[in-house]
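lol forgot to send this yesterday, sorry. struct tokens for the thing we talked abt
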């Protein structure tokens, strides 16, 4: 073994840099924080190559004078705290004085800054921790930092970076959460085709709607004091019309700092469970203001988590506050036509296929809400008093649908059935998903999944994320009834698949997407595999449509797809009559 020796400073620098600088997104996070700490109210962010090639942030904050500039890139040089006790009254996002040092150690940095008292700015140039120059430059007050060639001198770390798409997603996450946290600040963000311009002075709710592209009318804002904790909470929450398959539209901000907080996240998602179908998640932003002495921001290397005194009580307060807000103001689930689709529909009338003409029977521009069928189990969880439980209506709905007759199909997506006093619209895709799901679930439970052997394997390529997921989920995929093997570096070959699945490739991709599930959880596996089972767009013949209806009625829960969406909606005669301004 070699003799014990001190590592040269250059090596120390690179090892230590790992703490805060893992990937381009961590650099972006630190430089945005610095601009906000400098009191800027306008930030212009530009990324190239998902942040690998360049990250540039321009702000109109306080700037740094020439004297301080010399010190900026030393480790632990900061203007924000002087003693450990200062952390008790911390009002800035940064405090360790490590970020610029660590960033400069693994990239090339141009740091330009001008304070208002000075007539010119200064540009500091550092590469791989080595200072290359300091010279005057003309610029407006504030700071422009440009970070280039990220990890040029640390090939191992560079190799660990993921695809551009996933590095980009991480950068976007950083930007979105900070832009929500700092809703009063103007931001401009551009990275390839992704561009955002957010004005200053936007309200919290407007900022959330704007950034996440959510409809304002389904977002509620409410605020409250939590006197026992001297805290203040403001929430923006989507009603049950905003359901997502993942938790990505959920933000928690503690005193201006976007954080991950399991207690609050858990409590709020729990509250949403009573409003949303299983495996659907709500959209929300929770903004807490807590006195600095009640928070410890020094528990996480990249400051993504903070410790909050009285966290559990605060979390349960937030959750019940959210629930109360939504129950008093939340709308019943609305079914209405997307204006874009309405436009497409009116444009496509020239085609005049026999069934498409039937669309005039449905009030297209109706903004009226239609009561969906909700399974009795899901329904009993709904808290809104104005949606009455339909447990006793449920069996009569089965009967009404059973006795209905097929009228035709609409847009090759919906099947229309006429009953005595109602029109049923069946989403053929959702209905087929339900049927396939129940079949596959039963077969998996019985351990007899009939498989389809393929003469020629079905080969398809995987994305880097899917490739990684493949390694950990092979067993789960086989448990559903697939046999598949890795074909080349990033493609797989499917040799057989469960007979009931029409699109095995989609099923495999669905099993590879999102979080892994245990291969013993048969129901969850079947649910995921049945995504996309019958494509919308397949035109069904009368016999096929009737058969689909019969199989659907044979299901345990015919009126929701495995992911909680309705499979059938009913338009009763009265609501149609009302559209024609008939009184009776
Ligand atoms: P910290 O933010 O923990 O203090 P950093 O390494 O991120 O550590 O930054 C070091 C110092 O550089 C900051 O304390 C601040 O004084 C100065 N600084 C960095 N970026 C800016 C900026 N955009 N505007 C003004 N000052 C800045
Ligand atoms: Mg900082």
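and heres what i got for the seq, position by position
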């Amino acid at each position: 073994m070699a003799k014990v020796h001190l590592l040269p400073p250059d090596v120390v620098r690179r090892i230590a840099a790992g703490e805060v600088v893992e990937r381009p997104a961590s650099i972006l996070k630190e430089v945005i924080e610095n601009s906000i700490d400098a009191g800027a109210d306008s930030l212009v962010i530009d990324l190239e190559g998902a942040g690998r090639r360049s990250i540039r942030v321009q702000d109109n904050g306080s700037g740094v004078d020439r004297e301080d500039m010399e010190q900026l890139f030393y480790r632990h040089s900061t203007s924000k705290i002087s003693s450990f006790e200062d952390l008790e009254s911390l009002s800035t996002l940064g405090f360790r004085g490590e970020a610029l040092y660590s960033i400069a150690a693994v990239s090339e940095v141009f740091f330009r800054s001008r304070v208002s008292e000075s007539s010119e700015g200064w540009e500091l140039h550092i590469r791989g921790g080595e200072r290359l120059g300091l010279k005057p430059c003309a610029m407006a007050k504030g700071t422009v930092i440009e970070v280039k060639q990220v990890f040029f001198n640390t090939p191992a770390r560079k190799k660990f970076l993921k695809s551009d798409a996933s590095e980009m997603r991480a950068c976007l996450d950083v930007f979105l959460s900070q832009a929500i946290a700092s809703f009063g600040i103007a931001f401009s963000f551009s990275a390839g085709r992704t561009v955002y311009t957010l004005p200053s002075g936007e309200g919290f709710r407007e900022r959330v709607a704007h950034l996440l592209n959510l409809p304002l009318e389904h977002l509620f804002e409410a605020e409250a004091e939590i006197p026992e904790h001297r805290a203040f909470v403001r929430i923006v929450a989507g009603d049950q019309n905003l359901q997502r398959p993942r938790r990505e539209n959920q933000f928690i901000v503690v005193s201006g700092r976007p954080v991950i907080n399991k207690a609050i996240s858990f409590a709020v998602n729990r509250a949403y469970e009573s409003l949303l179908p299983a495996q659907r998640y709500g959209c929300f932003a929770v903004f807490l203001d807590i006195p600095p002495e009640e928070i410890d921001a020094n528990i996480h290397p990249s400051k993504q988590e903070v410790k909050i005194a009285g966290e559990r009580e605060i979390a349960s307060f937030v959750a019940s506050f959210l629930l109360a807000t939504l129950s008093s103001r939340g709308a019943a689930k609305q079914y209405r036509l997307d204006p874009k689709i309405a436009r497409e529909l009116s444009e496509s009338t020239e085609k005049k296929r026999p069934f498409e003409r039937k669309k005039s029977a449905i009030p297209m521009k109706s903004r009226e809400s239609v009561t969906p069928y909700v399974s009795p189990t899901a329904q009993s969880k709904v808290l809104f008093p104005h949606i009455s439980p339909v447990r006793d209506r449920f069996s009569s709905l089965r009967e009404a649908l059973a006795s209905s007759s097929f009228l035709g199909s609409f847009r090759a997506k919906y099947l229309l059935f006429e009953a005595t006093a109602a029109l049923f619209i069946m989403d053929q895709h959702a209905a087929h998903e339900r049927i396939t799901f129940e079949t596959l679930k039963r077969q998996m439970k019985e351990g007899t999944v009939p498989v389809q052997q393929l003469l020629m394997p079905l080969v398809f390529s995987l994305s880097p994320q899917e490739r990684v997921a493949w390694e950990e989920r092979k067993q789960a995929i086989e448990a559903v009834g697939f046999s598949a093997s890795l074909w080349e570096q990033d493609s797989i070959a499917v040799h057989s698949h469960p007979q009931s699945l029409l699109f095995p490739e989609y099923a495999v991709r669905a099993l590879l997407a999102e979080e892994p599930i245990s291969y013993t959880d048969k129901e969850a596996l079947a649910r995921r595999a049945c995504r996309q089972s019958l494509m919308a767009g397949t035109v069904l013949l009368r016999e096929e449509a009737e058969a689909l209806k019969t199989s659907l009625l044979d299901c345990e829960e015919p009126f929701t797809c495995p992911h909680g969406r309705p499979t059938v909606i009913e338009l009763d005669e009265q609501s149609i009559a009302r559209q024609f301004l008939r009184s009776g």
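The CA atoms of residues 404 and 418 lie 5 Å apart. anyway ping me if u want another try
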